[in-house]
Design the sequence.
């Protein structure tokens, strides 16, 4: 059995104003798997990042290895060992 | 008599208090930077609830147990899974309707006989009930899956939403809703079934459709506590009143200087007394001639006075949103907050209005606590 690669998850400081979201390292082959593992440890963060249907919120952006993910509905983009997932806010959506 | 106000603004929550000298002043400001949408005091246990629209990070709800207690985040109402094949679009703009809480427009305590019950009205049109003070929520399925609900369209926002929830103090199972743009609704079985109100008129629709009850735009619906069959509506196209508990509405005409506006407040013990804050029209949402006034009827809408001495008489461009006008339990004290961040208080039924601040962020809601 091959172990899932370990991936670091980090969040924008702007989200840390609202909810505790420390960086962490989790296993998974896709963004959905890694973030799912993170949210299992930090359930209060999930709804700040994902909408009611489980997709990425319209004004939130997820980067993997410096590129934005493509599948914002299912988060099926692959991640590799040693990569980092950054959850950022888009510049749109402010008031 | 209330000596304290909570004022929700686009940039935080202002705590406004009446001092020993009778002057009202901003006492504190919480959630700086956070857009407040709705605030309500629960008279059953003195808890306060607030809803926020954090833009990037979505809708959030907070509760505090007493005025001096810290706020804690509670659960945001969440929509059920959207069927994959469903292509549901807002009729006017063809925007795909997200099954997601886009805005928590109003939150209201349940009936006195139902401790712990809370109701929340949202965009894109879901009504939610909590039985545990907002720790968990469930969508009202009878309304969300009602065959007419997908025909609602946006008013003010791109998507439809519920902004008014009024429970009959005589009966927990009887409730009235206001939906922009989806009309007025009444349930008599606690939300198991719904009936649309008739009598409102929408001149933004083709003439043949003006009376369609399912696409009316009541901007705000309020009920008289002591005469619960009387409800007042500031509608997109005028002022309406119901005397049968929200089954039917009748239009009130000849209201100077204008019958357009968003907010309405009704006297808690006198169903014939109500207040409105007019703007020119839907196309020109500023006070008539730049003079801000409150219109008040004391005779059930047969006549109106323009009151509010002390409000700016020229070059005022303030608009009062749906939840921006409040009256306290005595019917004497009113508070009013505007889109340009001005807050006024009256202690004489709006005969005179005193400026509290002209420097708040745009005000979404005011409530006496």
Sequence:
């Amino acid at each position: 059995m091959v172990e899932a690669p370990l991936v670091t998850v980090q969040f924008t400081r702007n989200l840390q104003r609202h909810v505790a979201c420390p960086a962490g390292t989790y296993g998974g082959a896709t963004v959905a798997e890694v973030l799912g593992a993170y949210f299992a440890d930090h359930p209060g963060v999930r709804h700040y990042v994902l909408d009611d249907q489980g997709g990425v919120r319209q004004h939130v952006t997820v980067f993997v290895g410096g590129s934005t993910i493509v599948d914002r509905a299912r988060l099926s983009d692959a991640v590799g060992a040693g990569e980092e997932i950054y959850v950022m806010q888009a510049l749109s959506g402010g008031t | 008599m209330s000596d304290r106000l909570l004022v929700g603004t686009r940039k935080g929550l202002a705590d406004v208090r009446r001092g020993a000298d009778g002057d009202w002043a901003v006492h504190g400001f919480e959630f700086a930077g956070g857009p407040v949408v709705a605030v309500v005091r629960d008279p059953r246990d003195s808890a306060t609830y607030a809803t926020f629209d954090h833009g990037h990070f979505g809708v959030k709800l907070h509760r505090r147990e007493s005025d001096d207690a810290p706020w804690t985040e509670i659960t945001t109402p969440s929509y059920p899974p959207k069927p994959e094949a469903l292509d549901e679009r807002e009729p006017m703009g063809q925007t795909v309707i997200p099954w997601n809480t886009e805005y928590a427009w109003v939150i209201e305590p349940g009936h006195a006989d139902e401790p712990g019950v809370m109701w929340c009205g949202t965009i894109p049109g879901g009504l939610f009930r909590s039985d545990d003070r907002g720790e968990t929520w469930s969508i009202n399925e009878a309304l969300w899956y009602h065959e007419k609900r997908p025909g609602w369209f946006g008013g003010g926002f791109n998507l439809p939403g519920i902004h008014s929830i009024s429970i009959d103090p005589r009966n927990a199972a009887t409730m009235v809703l206001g939906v922009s743009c989806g009309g007025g609704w009444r349930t008599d079985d606690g939300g198991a079934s719904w009936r649309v109100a008739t009598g409102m008129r929408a001149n933004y629709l083709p003439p043949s459709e003006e009376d369609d009850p399912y696409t009316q735009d009541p901007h705000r619906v309020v009920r008289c506590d002591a005469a619960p069959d009387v409800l007042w509506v500031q509608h997109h196209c005028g002022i309406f009143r119901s005397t049968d508990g929200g089954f039917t509405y009748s239009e009130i005409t000849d209201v100077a200087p204008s019958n357009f506006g968003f907010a309405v407040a009704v006297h808690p013990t006198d169903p014939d007394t109500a207040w409105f804050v007019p703007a020119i029209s839907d196309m020109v949402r500023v006070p008539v001639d730049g003079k801000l006034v409150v219109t008040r009827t004391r005779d059930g809408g047969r006549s109106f006075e323009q009151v509010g001495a002390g409000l700016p008489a020229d070059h005022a461009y303030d608009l009062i949103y749906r939840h921006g006008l409040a009256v306290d339990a005595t019917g004497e004290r009113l508070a009013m907050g505007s889109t340009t961040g001005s807050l006024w208080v009256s202690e004489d039924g709006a005969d005179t209005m005193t400026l509290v601040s002209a420097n708040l962020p745009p005000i979404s809601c005011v409530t006496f606590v």
Notes: Chain B touches chain A through 20 residues (CB under 8 Å).
